[in-house]
Specification:
The chain is of the alpha/beta class. The longest helix has 12 residues. Helix content is 35%, strand content 19%. Strands 1, 2, 3, 4, 5, 6, 7 and 8 form an 8-stranded mixed sheet that branches. The mean pLDDT is 95. Helix 1 links the parallel strand 1 and strand 2. The protein has one domain: Spore Coat Polysaccharide Biosynthesis Protein SpsA, Chain A. Keywords: Magnesium, Transferase. InterPro entries: MobA-like_NTP_Trfase, Nucleotide-diphossugar_trans.
Length: 210
C-alpha cells in the first residue's frame, strides 16, 4: 500500500497562505503531523503533491525527509497546473508511486484533526471490505471525507480520465463499487479553508493553529 498527501492548493480563502504550514501548539507544521501519522499507520511509500507554495512547503519536506519519524519512501512531486483541480494533482502523485502497489490511501494536508488511529481505522475497514469494493470512503453525518482508499482498478481509471475529472466523478459513476466507513466523529470531514474554520477548530476541539 502507498499514500498520497495532497498539498497543492493556493489557500485563496486563507489569504493565499499555505494551509499545510499552519503550526500546531508544538511548533510543527500541519504537514509534518500528517507524515508522522502515515508512518505510525505503517505507510512508507508516500508522495506529497505540491502546486502553489511549492518552494515553501518543499523546504519543510526536505527537513522532514531527514527526520527518523518521516516515511522512508517519502517523495514529492510538482503539479504545474494545480488550478486544474484535485484530480490533476492526484494523477501527478499516482504517476510517482510504485506501479505494483495494491492500494492507495489519499489524505489532505489541511485536515487538522486526523490521527494515525483514524488512518488505521480506514486501513482496517479496507482489509475487511466486501468483494467487489474498489473505493472506501469515510463519512460523517452523510458527508464524505478523507483519508480514503482505492485499488488498482480505480488508480488505472483515474490515470485515464480527462484533466477536469477527479475521484468524485469516479465515485458517482461506480456507486456499486464504493464502500462507506461511517464515523461518529468529524475528524474525517474537518478541513481548514477560512479564518472562521480556525476559530471553530479552537472553540469546538481545543486545537489552535497559527
Amino acid at each position: 500500500m502507498g499514500a498520497v498527501l495532497m498539498a497543492a492548493g493556493a489557500g485563496r480563502r486563507m489569504g493565499y497562505r499555505p494551509k499545510s504550514l499552519l503550526r500546531r501548539e508544538d511548533g510543527k507544521p500541519l504537514i509534518a503531523h500528517h507524515l508522522r501519522a502515515l508512518v505510525a499507520a505503517g505507510l512508507s511509500d508516500v508522495v506529497v503533491v505540491l502546486g502553489h507554495h511549492a518552494d515553501r512547503i518543499g523546504e519543510v519536506l526536505q527537513q522532514e525527509k531527514q527526520a527518523a519519524a518521516s516515511p522512508s519512501g517519502l517523495q514529492w512531486v510538482l503539479n504545474l497546473n494545480p488550478d486544474d483541480g484535485p484530480g490533476s494533482s492526484l494523477r501527478c502523485a499516482l504517476a510517482a508511486l510504485p506501479a505494483d502497489l495494491d492500494a492507495v490511501l489519499v489524505t489532505l494536508a489541511d485536515q487538522p484533526l486526523i490521527t494515525a488511529a483514524d488512518m488505521l481505522s480506514v486501513l482496517t475497514a479496507w482489509r475487511a471490505r466486501a468483494p467487489g469494493t474498489a473505493l472506501l470512503v469515510p463519512r460523517f453525518q452523510g458527508q464524505p471525507g478523507h483519508p480514503l482508499m482505492f485499488d488498482t482498478r480505480v488508480r488505472r481509471d483515474l490515470m485515464a480520465q480527462p484533466v477536469e475529472a477527479g475521484l468524485r466523478d469516479w465515485r458517482r459513476a461506480h456507486p456499486a463499487q464504493v464502500a462507506w466507513l461511517d464515523a461518529n466523529h468529524p475528524r474525517y470531514t474537518f478541513d481548514i479553508d477560512t479564518e472562521a474554520d480556525l476559530a471553530r477548530l479552537a472553540a469546538e476541539h481545543g486545537v489552535v493553529l497559527r
